[in-house]
Design a protein that fits this description.
Blueprint: H1 16-34, H2 37-46, H3 51-61, E1 99-104, H4 109-120, E2 126-131, H5 135-147, E3 154-159, H6 176-181, E4 189-192, H7 193-198, H8 210-220, E5 225-232, H9 237-241, H10 245-259, E6 264-268, E7 275-279, E8 287-293, H11 297-308, E9 315-321, H12 327-335, E10 339-342, H13 349-358, E11 364-368, E12 372-374, H14 379-387, E13 392-400, E14 406-408, E15 411-413, E16 417-419, H15 431-434, E17 437-438, E18 446-450, H16 451-457, H17 469-479, E19 483-494, H18 506-516, E20 531-534, E21 537-540
Parallel strand pairs: 1-2, 3-5, 8-9, 8-11, 9-10, 13-19
Antiparallel strand pairs: 2-4, 3-4, 6-7, 11-18, 12-19, 13-14, 13-18, 15-16, 17-19, 20-21
Helix pairs in contact: 8-10
């Protein structure tokens, strides 16, 4: 069942007045968190949807490029996070009498296997792997998870990180492709003993990735997972970064993919706990790359030259021309070996892409901005490999700006769709940004999708002429049961706004807000529910257990 719902179809869309109020509240919160004292005073005077506001924003941003933050300088993230202890009396429904605690005194897998399988013979309903902490703390953590168990088979919490001030925050839902990349669930986790027994517990051959292997098999068995947004003691730093973890993780992920009928290359990444998996296809399907443009032939030329260096054996380029007039551009069109499709009329990105896809006949289509430059020759192999999975609808990649600063690492909805930017608004290089993972959306500047699936969706919504059409497409994909996956290791350069300036009609944004109940019930299932992205600031909003 999708985490998203169309409010323009169920008769519960917010009124224009309610939408305006939501915007005011959101902008006020952004100013409070991300703005200077002067901006907090001047912002309300300028208004949020006014010409003078847009002029002020352009003047403020002119010549200003964001600077990435070096991870070593980050001491607390989120910046307002304060570690708190969970007291034993905070939760009702203490289930200690129903929980078999598996207490580890070392990091050796052999001890875990032995104690875990002994615990499986218990008559307790639940199992919980924990460290050699004092009994009171152990019981308190168990009570927190037990109180939120509902009908779940696995109840998991956020986790203390390498330092107390940078926690490991986890998503509300377990993305199946994220779990292929790393052990999202980690510890602490409360496991229903019967569900674990049905998949035959831990496997010795999984080594240090035994718990990850168990969760992969539980997902395949359709176990139910529930997240509790509270930070508790979990794994040690040694367990999460052990040198042997990478090889063990590669092995269990390879096994999981093979069980699903997918042949893939699984390799190490910069972190021992994260692996990169890439499905292998034979033969490679055909791909059409559609590139919208209007003049700016110097941008288009460098984009196409970078694409032409791709190692992929079966692709074609289609240029979508939206009323180019400059002689140099017309001459380029006359001489290029690539197909040119005329897309006349006022700029409507969705309509241009729809027209381009209608002229395509390939198995897959890539949308590519004319102000992008491909940085790796195998980018298409990587994109189409993941897009070929039966449960995947759209795949995106990382975009870097002129200075190499991250501009797009997926789109998160917290509470409004915004680009996650590694080192800019997301200040730590943790598993969540290094992994190939499920996300709410990816930018249309580079997307790949099956052509037939795109047509089944009805293409992009042309009523969202300039903005949010790409996000809307991603959400509609997930309504149809097809995930959106972000590949952080596939990078392109993107000179944002070079070709069309910064068109940003509020009519598009307001239509999107009403359709998906933004600022209301809409929640990103794959971004930690305790985080809000407000302007350039990620803020922690603690969840208090009931």
């Amino acid at each position: 069942m999708s985490a998203f719902e169309r409010f323009d179809l169920n008769g519960r869309a917010a009124t224009p007045g309610e939408v305006a109020r939501r915007w005011r509240d959101f902008h006020a919160e952004v100013r409070r968190v991300s703005s200077s004292r002067l901006a907090r005073v001047v912002g309300p005077l300028l208004g949020d949807d006014t010409r003078r506001r847009r002029i002020a924003e352009r003047l403020r941003s002119a010549g200003h490029d964001p600077v990435a933050v070096t991870e070593g300088t980050v001491r607390t993230f989120p910046t307002n996070y304060v570690p708190t202890a969970v007291a034993s009396g905070e939760c009702s429904g203490d289930g200690s009498g129903r929980i078999e605690f598996v207490v580890l005194h070392s990091t050796e897998p052999a001890e875990l296997f032995e104690k875990f399988h002994q615990a499986l013979t218990s008559d307790k309903e639940w199992l919980m792997i924990t460290h050699d902490v004092d009994e009171t703390s152990r019981a308190a953590a168990g009570a927190v998870l037990y109180a939120h168990r509902g009908d779940a088979d696995v109840v998991y919490a956020d986790e203390v990180g390498d330092t107390n001030t940078i926690p490991i925050l986890k998503p509300r839902e377990i993305g199946p492709h994220t779990l292929l990349s790393y052990n999202v669930i980690g510890r602490p986790a409360l496991l229903r003993r019967e569900a674990v027994s049905e998949v035959r517990g831990l496997r010795d051959v999984a080594g240090r990735a035994a718990e990850h292997d168990l969760y992969l098999r539980l997902v395949e068995a359709r176990a139910r997972f529930r997240h509790v947004a509270v930070v508790l003691a979990g794994r040690t730093a040694l367990e999460r970064h052990h040198d042997d973890l990478s090889a063990d993780t590669q092995r269990v992920v390879t096994d999981a993919l093979l069980r699903r009928g997918v042949s893939a290359r699984v390799s190490a990444s910069a972190q021992a706990s994260v692996v990169t998996w890439s499905p292998l296809l034979d033969p490679w399907p055909s791909i059409d790359i559609v590139i919208p443009t209007r003049d700016r032939v110097e941008l288009l030329r460098q984009c196409i030259e970078s694409v032409e260096s791709s190692s992929y054996p079966n692709f074609a380029i289609t240029i979508l021309d939206n009323d180019s007039l400059e002689p140099a551009t017309r001459e380029y069109f006359a001489r290029t070996p690539h197909r040119v499709v005329e897309c006349p009329g006022p700029f409507n990105y969705a309509a241009i892409i729809n027209r381009g896809v209608a002229h395509c006949g390939a198995d897959y289509v890539v949308t590519l901005n004319n102000d992008t430059i491909v940085r790796s020759s195998d980018w298409l192999e990587q994109l189409v490999g993941v897009a070929s999975l039966e449960d995947v609808g759209i795949v995106g990649a990382t975009l870097l700006d002129r200075q190499g600063v991250h501009e797009h690492d997926g789109i998160v909805i917290a509470p409004y769709p915004q680009h996650l930017r590694r080192g800019v608004n997301y200040l730590v290089e943790d598993e969540a940004v290094l992994a190939r993972r499920d996300v709410a959306a990816v930018t249309g500047a580079v997307q790949i999708f099956s052509r037939t699936f795109y047509l089944e969706l009805g293409g992009m919504d042309e009523d969202l002429a300039v903005v949010m059409n790409d996000v809307d497409l991603c959400l509609r994909s997930q309504l149809e049961g097809h995930h959106v996956v972000m590949l952080p290791d596939v990078e392109l350069s993107h000179f944002a706004g070079s070709s069309r300036g910064r068109l940003d009609p509020w009519s598009d944004r307001n239509r999107f807000v009403r359709r998906w109940d933004v600022f209301g019930s809409l929640v990103d299932p794959y971004f930690p529910e305790s985080l809000r992205l407000l302007g350039t600031t990620v803020q922690y909003r603690p969840a208090v257990p009931n």
